[in-house]
Design brief:
By secondary structure, the protein is an alpha/beta fold. The protein contains ten helices and 16 strands. A hairpin with a 7-residue loop joins strand 15 and strand 16. Helix 4 packs across helix 10 and helix 8 packs across helix 10. The radius of gyration is 23 Å and the shape is elongated. Pfam families: M20_dimer, Peptidase_M20.
């Protein structure tokens, strides 16, 4: 395929990226996520793929995409359709671009990856390779909040696969990801007793006071040297300054390095939240460990070598690293299959108003994904 042909493909990719970036699809905007799913589903149907819609009530629908002639696909590709941005963000700053970069909510994380994945499959079809029949694609709808509703779906198909290619985007240096810290989300609700803080404070039981005790204890679980972090990131409660607070809440984020740490952290959090410090209040804890740690192993090392070899053939030397954030790669890795992450396009400043995509990375990352799919398929034949 000539450079002119690829330039035309880049232009086509940008048009599709613009279209789906301009669809509001924050995790909690189900209607928008479903619109993205409908668009992507139709594009895969156009190239002969079967699209199984996994309907969700609380979140957007998930898609499982395979070719009708696929027998036992060994390669699982995962990309998420949701973004972190609230409703109204697209109206404030829709897709835009200049010569080098494209901008917009989710353009980097990870709507561009959706389109490079589609075009990698199309490229394999155009060059006459049947390796696209060795692929199963999951497009899920709640990765940005821990894949709570899609985790079982990912685990189900990961157990049927040999390789997982996670097309999260990468930094501008193109570095792949082979390790991630584990993480979890907890939601603590405290119920107290309201009373006038001046006239009869003795009749009240402060939910905020109880929450304050819990925040101190939860933060004390942090062990920075061991890579364990607990962060009470959002709190709220009370009704007025002269009322003993009848309710309060906290949203808690946790990170860890190992499975053992995850288990111990979960146990400690539940123990702390099992008893009150302020008599007369009550506690309700929801959530848990949503992502086990993604730990580099021999299978991942072997897959990494293959990806790096294919990148070298395309003129790029790639390295790998471990990062603190989580992805669906945590889930596939915990099932025990070889997992490589950050195979999507380059860019930066994810989750911010300055998020950007490096346009010239679209074609190289499309080629790399296609080459890796073909190499893995030929390897197993």
């Amino acid at each position: 395929m000539s450079s002119k042909d690829w330039k035309q493909k880049e232009a086509a990719m940008l048009l599709l990226i613009e279209e789906i970036v301009n669809i509001e699809s924050g995790t909690f905007v189900k209607s928008g996520v479903d619109l993205v799913a409908a668009k992507l589903g139709s594009l895969y149907k156009e190239i002969g793929f079967q699209v199984d819609v996994q309907e969700q009530k609380e979140r957007g629908n998930n898609l499982v995409i395979t070719h009708p002639e696929a027998q036992h696909p060994e390669i699982l590709i995962i990309a998420h359709m949701d973004t972190v941005f609230p409703a109204g963000t697209v109206a404030e700053r829709p897709f835009s671009r200049d010569e080098k970069y494209a901008y917009g909510p989710g353009v980097f994380d990870m709507k561009a990856s959706q389109i490079t994945t589609l075009h990698a499959i199309k490229y394999l079809q155009e060059k006459g390779s049947d390796s696209y029949k060795n692929v199963r694609i999951i497009l899920n709808s709640d990765e940005e909040v821990g894949s709570v509703h899609s985790r079982s779906l990912i685990e189900q198909y990961a157990e049927l696969s040999k390789y997982a290619l996670i097309v999260e985007p990468c930094d501008e240096d193109g570095t792949l990801v082979t390790g991630r810290r584990g993480g979890g989300k907890y939601y603590l609700t405290v119920t107290g007793v309201a009373a006038h803080s001046g006239a009869e404070p003795e009749k009240g039981r402060s939910a905020i006071a109880e929450l304050a005790h819990k925040i101190i204890k939860l933060h004390a679980l942090t062990d920075a040297e061991a890579g364990v972090h607990v962060n009470v990131g959002v709190i709220g409660g009370g009704t007025s300054s002269n009322t003993i607070a009848p309710h309060a809440f906290a949203n808690i984020d946790v990170r860890m390095e190992t499975k053992a740490q995850a288990e111990e952290l979960d146990r400690s959090i539940r123990e702390i939240c099992s008893r009150v410090d302020v008599v007369g209040t009550s506690l309700e804890l929801q959530g848990g460990i949503t992502r086990p740690p993604m730990i580099k192993n021999e299978r991942t090392e072997e897959l990494l070598s293959i990806v790096q070899e294919e990148a070298l053939k395309l003129g790029e030397k790639l390295h790998d690293k471990k990062v603190g954030s989580g992805s669906d790669g945590n889930i596939t890795s915990s099932v025990g299959i070889a997992t490589i992450d950050a195979l999507g396009p380059k860019g930066g400043k994810a989750h911010s108003k300055d998020e950007y995509l490096v346009i010239e990375s679209l074609v190289p990352r499309t080629k790399l994904l296609a080459h890796v799919i073909e190499r893995l398929t030929n390897r197993e034949q």
